[in-house]
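Appendix B, record 7
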Amino acid sequence: MERVRIDMEFLFRASPTILYQFLTTPACLVRWFSDGVDIQGEYYTFSWSGADEVAEMIDDIEEERIRFKWLEADDEDEFLEFRISKSPITDETILEITDFCDSDEEKDTRQLWESQIKTLKKEMGGG
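Structure tokens (predicted):
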């Protein structure tokens, strides 16, 4: 199955600092991203419905970018990335997500991210 890259962008009414915390700390990640999170150094173990997936944080620029590489990924070039920036016009915080999936799962993956981000915004106070 062909793999495709997905790029999505979401706007937040929260500071980059708060958004960064929700993307990197276990107590915040379990509120919107996964059922459980354990961090050992640069390795994050995410749990969903009893299944674990381990990702290495390969890039971390505070309040700007976080990039994870899934250890079980078949393609060395695939990653999950969160980029944070500030709109100079609206002063909103912009979250850009890059992810990869099978080509026949693109629509479902996009819908999943939209649902996850809706939960994230709710957990952050509507923002």
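Remarks on this record: DSSP finds three helices and seven strands in the chain. The longest strand covers residues 51-61.
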